[in-house]
User: Fold these one by one.
Assistant:
Number 1:
Amino acid sequence: MTTNERKYTPDHEWITVDGDIATIGITAYAADRLGDVVFIELPEAGADVAGGTVVGEIESTKSVGELFAPVDGTVIEVNTAAIDEPAIVNRDPLGDGWLIRVRFTALPDLLDADQYAALVSR
Amino acid sequence: MSASASERLSPLHAVHVAAGASFTDFAGWQMPVRYTSDLAEHHAVRTAAGIFDLSHMAEIAVRGTGAAAALDYALAGRLSALAIGQAKYSLLLTPDGGIVDDVVVYRLADDDFLVVANASNRGAAVQELTDRAVAFDARVVDESDATALIAVQGPGSRGILDRVTALDAGTPLAELRYYRVTSARFADRPVLIARTGYTGEDGFELYVPVDVAESLWTAIVQAGAGSGLVPAGLASRDTLRLEAGMPLYGSELGRDIFPAQAGLGRVVNLAKDTDFVGRHASENGPDAVARVLVGLASEGRRAGRAGYPVYASGDTEAVMEALEGAVDPAGIVTSGALSPTLGHPIAMAYVDPAVARPGTTVYIDVRGTRIPATVVPLPFYTRAS
């Protein structure tokens, strides 16, 4: 399956899918709520992750956000540019501020853009 | 997200919305947490200037021929010793010596004082001051609803305010000393300008009638346009005051904390020749084993946060339990952040006296990882003078 449609989780992450590779980041809403991101901790490439578990941390001056793995799979790439310069996540959360790429076995049910927009406007 | 009916809005709310602010609930008020970037706002205050809306804070007038004596009884300091135009940081104590609120008191005239209290303690401060003034010829009036508070903080603040031509200060601001206040006029309305603040920088706080708050804010923003002045939210205010080692009520101060534990023993004037609420308990002081407030500095980028435990040992819980049973924390973090100015994590924490000496290494439990930290004197940051 290949789709460029961006999907979302209730944990304020986004996912785009290319084949069996999911690219994962946090939403603009999440980045805005955190404020300036100053520290990012991500799993190592090669790590196995389980959907729904905490695999990383995103710290701002004010608070700490957790990165949940939205899928079961293996991390194949992490965004070292975001680790080196966390402000990328505020500047471009849906683009250059992506966090990890995971080779997954199955996709869970995810929110589409309208459903996510409804969630955060509540 | 819309504000619910119980959330109070600043008289400057429309200005903040127009400036694109993000809001946070603070003591029941919807106040700007940041406009664009809390880091940029923090750095602007350290290097140029920032303008803050602090209209949620409480302004309480104490007036009458007995006002000075009433405040000497109600507060921990000797306010009767203040000269007209002088300000003083003081504490409203419980009878048990704990802290009801920390306040700044301005003497505006012989028989006219302004007590500025935290928004979260407005009701308690008004009630306690009223009750404690009963035996004196003094009236306590909560003027918070009629008063907006605008702070201009940073090395550029005086130059910017000097350029607000419609602001006519009684004392030229260049001559207004730190912790002094002068009356002023703006748009034919009375304003108080105080050289006080909560950021560790030079700066001013302007107490202004709510009906001219917006025009004064706008005039200051225009005057500062070429000087790097930015509107700054409560997020930057918190990291600025943390770097400056200033306690925040609810984090470092509370009813179960003695001033001496918070490093504020000097604020309690036991040499005062009259009685005051909390005097007896203050004379006895906290237990010798009571925790004390310290600064903690660490390396890397992971900050301790409010509520994180502090340990005397870096060994993990599991190892220590196997060796000698469960180990209690030696303290708890009350405020912490990656310091925007210093570039490393800083925190304030209450710790056991045994590990409170500067230079001692302790360990902050950052979500399961023990990060070493060094006890350092407060403040973390002092401006070059």
Number 2:
Amino acid sequence: MYSTVPDRYFDEMVAPDGSVRPAYRQIADWLRSQTRKDLRQTAANAEGIFRRLGITFAVYGSDQSNERLIPFDIIPRILSAAEWRRLERGIEQRVRALNAFLHDIYHRQEIIRAGRVPEKLIVLNSAFCPEMLGHDPARGVYTHIIGIDLVRVSENEFYVLEDNLRTPSGVSYMIEDREAMLRLVPELFARYRVAPVESYPEHLRRTLQSVAPPGCKGDPTIVVLTPGIYNSAFFEHSFLADEMGIELCQGDDLFVDDGFVYMRTTQKPKRVDVVYRRIDDDFLDPLTFRRDSTLGVPGLFSAYRAGNVTIVNAPGTGIADDKAVYTYVPQIIEFYTGEKPLLSNVPTYNCANEEERAYVLDHLEELVVKEVHGSGGYGMLVGPTSTKKERTEFARRIKARPHNYIVQPTLALSTCPTFVESGIAPRHVDLRPFVLVGDQIRITPGGLTRVALKNGSLVVNSSQGGGTKDTWILED
Amino acid sequence: MLGRTASSLYWICRYVERAENMARLFDVGHRMSLGPGQDGRHREHWDSTLQAAAMAEAFHRRHERAQPPQVRDFMLFDEANPSSVRNCLLAARSNARAVRTAITTEMWESINGTWLEFAAIRPSRVTYNDLPALLEWIKRNAAQFRGAMLNTILRDDGYAFCQLGTFNERADNTARILDVKYYVLLPRSDLVGSELDNDQWSMILRAASAHRSYRHVYRDRYRPWNIADFLILREEMPRSLAHCYAWMTRTLADLESFYGARYGCHDIGDSIYERLSRSDMDAIFQSGLHEFLTEFIAANNALGQAIAESYNFY
């Protein structure tokens, strides 16, 4: 009843010879025991759970009151303990190197002096934050909360699609997807040993505590700073604050007095030591960044520079996950760790190079074009599914501003069985594990598996109709 | 606790209370319109219903005469009327969403579920016969939210702000219901009221969910004196002004000891409660029921503002 496309894509459950991979055997048995009606009922129950809990996201550009659920697929995505260990090592190496890179870029810029990364690429980059030069954040950590997007193309080949070092979202789905699965199919958890993900908020709290300013005595006061209820990820902000038992603040709940940050309470103002902000750099402080921002806190950045508060993640981390800088990450890893990268980048064409650009323009039909500063799947061309008109348009844009685009081969993203209208069918997936960097590096065994629900689609972003799956890391 | 959080808790409970009051007021108007009588008398019922809901002026800016379908849409569904049941539920739910971390899962699921179900109703599909069930549903869901709050919330400052919102709103509502009909409660020479009076009295009691409990307390037919006494001075009546103020002063005292600080709102609350405790119906009728109620509504309002100032609502 489940047929894959064995010649073209790696299927997570079924090997090319038609046998079920060991990690999926119990799932395959379970799927065989379920009628389509059973599965439909389970899927409906899942939707009920999510809606009641208020897990919704707003879609940019649509009516603000329009809250949608990210579709959830009831068939889990599974990785064996051995597969996960390999990923874990690669991720840890990568986030160490990226934090070292950020420290260097905002201090002596050795990597530029060594000629490994072009100076222009950094200092002329809009994600570079000169205000951060010479600042020493607590414990030297710049990016504390990280989501690394991975795709799998074969048994042993994973690629890093992008690093999310600014304010990555999706971790609440990792946790709530698991909650939902525990309620929906407890029998499956009895058959497997699945590593729990529920300790993430506790690890996040410990990470945030560990980076309080050195001058902070006693238990630091930590807050989550949200743009408010109309933000697409508001549920997550609220969820994390609740799970950690800390205040969820909006910009106007905080103020700066004499170099310190305080929150407005029903009583006297309360000093704040660590701000886990879910607001972009630009909007953080109208006195330093965008003046028209009403979401931020005036004076926050100077309190930060004075070392009186820690902003998590630090401003200016975008310079390390910029799509143009991404192509240098393998060199960055080698430069700071002296090791070969354990996880590979997707091979990327540089359009500024005339030869490579000519190749790109000739082969747009097979390639994926991404805007350097785009995110969320907007401003993207997926060659194989594009129209002639779209390709002509992107060719024009690439010629006009070659630096503004990166181009990659269309990756044969692995597929995972997914319950859709027509039954159980293979759909493409990626994986975003979440990493915390503070007094130590903590990687939650799991992550967010995003799934492209449309047949043949390779775009997994929720804003483009993608869904999520619970991700199971098996214990030995 | 953030001042904004305190403010949201207060308003969540105020709006849920208001939604319930709107449903009850509309229910009474609806019920009266089912009784025998001429068109003129029915219109009068609807007018006083709108007045008790404090939305007569806004209604008449849009509609010339109070006809049942227009009143129904205005009180229950209208997006332009800030106190329509729809907008009360939406405001309660938006506030709840903003302070999701300060309320319990049970409270959130209750108000979120209520809003989602209400939002799915198509007003044009609600028939005359659907109305009683819809009004029951609104009252039941408000009660369920309050039950969830009382059963699950920590007894700390957050609980105090919830209670203050509820009773501030309820006191306002009861005072308005009385004030709209104060003239039918005035003592007159004829000792026995007409059928018409009886209808009016019954409407007042029903609007405060008090027509059954009245019998338990007074064991007598409806008498205007008793009705006013019941809704103003009787602390055991959960919608009476005295009951609301007993709760509010107690709650304000809790906040005083919780924070170790006393503010303007404490003095205002105490003085209103003291006045209610010292009054009897003789004195109130003598100095004028309408004047008493007008003053009360203003003082109750001033208390709301003082609470907002004292605890940094914004």
